[in-house]
Amino acid sequence: MKRKYSNKKLKLFKLVLGLLGLVLIFAIYSINQYQIKLHTPVDKNSNKEVILTINKGDQTWEIANELNKNDLIQDEMTFKIYTRLNNIDKNIKTGRFALNKSMTIPEIVDVITSDNQKELIVTIPEGSTVYEIDQILSDQGLIEKNEFINAVNEFDNYEQYEFLNSNKKELIHPLEGYLFPDTYYVDANNFQNEALINKMLNNFEIKIADLESARDLEEIIIVASMIEEEANQNKDRPLISGIIWKRLDENWLLGIDATLLYLAEDRQITYQDLQEDSPYNTRKKLGLPPGPITNPGFASIEAAYYPEESEYYYYLTSKDGEMIYSKTDDEHNFNKRKYL
After folding, report:
1. What DSSP character marks residue 309?
2. Is 202 within 8 Å of 138 (Cβ atoms)?
3. DSSP code of 295?
4. pTM of the predicted structure, to 2 decimals
5. Beta 183-187 vs 119-123: how paired, if at all?
6. What is the predicted pLDDT for the residue at 21?
7. Three-state DSSP class for 251?
8. What is the pLDDT of residues 298-331, one digit of tens each?
9. How would DSSP label each residue in 42-104?
10. What is the spatial distance between Cα 206 and Cα 292, in angstroms, rounded to a whole number?
11. Fold entry, domain 50-117
12. What are the structural domain ranges in the chain?
């Protein structure tokens, strides 16, 4: 009886030992596979740059999924385990990073956890002036105040861009209107104003490539800059464009105060300002101001290219932001009393 019991214990011991052995073999295999996936790049011979953008709030699993989608890692789980085991997941930076398939997971992690490797996201809102772009860049610590303004005013690469007029160098900021507002990625550690200027001009050239008009491009962009300042919503832009062009064609004063506001850094104009004999005072000077008064977005540029015809000659913005249109001066004055 004792012998039978001993045999059972021996069999159980062997079974447990066998299971432990299998677990150990599986563990060794898993660790070996983990190490292989960790240190083996997707393509060791690749040198093609792949851009990875990490936004604020992105979770580790989302980053792993994006890396996998871009064929930068062999296995998402290996990436997640590595960042968790090394307490790296909380050190991942936001920004845009240049990676390639020849990088291992540790090498990728080194890049996306380093401030020195990331590209900074710079967003220039529609309707930003050169002065305001300078403020955005200085607020982000990329430049000292006025450096961007100086770079714009010293720009001397007009021959590269057919749409620029080198005779307009005497303007307050000669590139105003052509620095396309958009989101840009810049090297935070080696930021160059000239590089951003070229990116914005190249972007402008791409955006207007398919737009056509018999009118002069310079005039179109000046009108687009006024539309940008005058319209609150995209639906109003073509109609306001039609009114501006009609007043110009019929030799009316434009009467757009935004052109004078362009000269005021504090964005305030006084009664005395309105009496000034300035080329930007469209209450007193016929025609367009000398240059654009802001950098318009695509909706305003498109509206300037393709105005909407109407019976209206006047418009105003009510206190609640609604555009009110009128056909005659009397009707316009009535709307001023009613809505303002």
Report:
1. P
2. no
3. B
4. 0.75
5. antiparallel
6. 66
7. coil
8. 999 999 999 999 999 999 999 999 999 999 999 9
9. S-TT----EEEEE-TT--HHHHHHHHHHTT--S-HHHHHHHHHHTT-GGGPPPEEEEE-TT--
10. 19
11. Dna Ligase; domain 1 (3.30.1490)
12. 50-117, 120-207, 217-309
Token digits of residue 45? 């011979």
The span from the CA of 121 to the CA of 93, in Å, is 12
Of residues 254, 261, 241, 252, the one with CA closest to residue 307: 241
User: Nearest-CA neighbor of 172 among 238, 272, 58, 264?
Assistant: 264
CA 233, 238, 241, 243 torsion-angle sign: negative
Query: Helix, strand, or coil here: 186?
Result: strand
- Residue 37 — pLDDT band, cuts 50, 70, 90? confident
Token duo for residue 311 = 């019976």
Question: What integer best gives the mean pLDDT of the chain?
Answer: 90
Confidence (pLDDT) at 10: 67
Torsion (CA) 315, 318, 320, 321 in degrees, nearest 10: 30
Per-residue pLDDT for 2 more than 60? no
Of 132, 126, 165, 124, which is closest to residue 301 (Cα–Cα)? Answer: 126
Tokens of 305: 């290219």
Q: Which two tokens stand for residue 249?
A: 């064609």
User: Residue range 169-186: average pLDDT?
Assistant: 92
Q: Residue 255 pairs with which residues in a beta bridge? A: none
**246-283 per-position pLDDT tens digit:** 999 999 999 999 999 998 877 788 878 788 889 999 99
State the Cα–Cα distance between residues 158 and 171, nearest whole angstrom. 14
Q: 58 pairs with which residues across the strands? A: none
Partnered with residue 95 across adjacent β-strands are: 54
Structure tokens at 95: 């920004």
The rounded distance, in Å, linking the Cα atoms of 217 and 169 is: 17
Check if the beta carbon of residue 323 is closer than 8 Å to that of residue 303.
no
> Which residues lie below 8 Å from residue 66, measured CB to CB, with a gap of 6+?
52
Tokens of 328: 């005659």
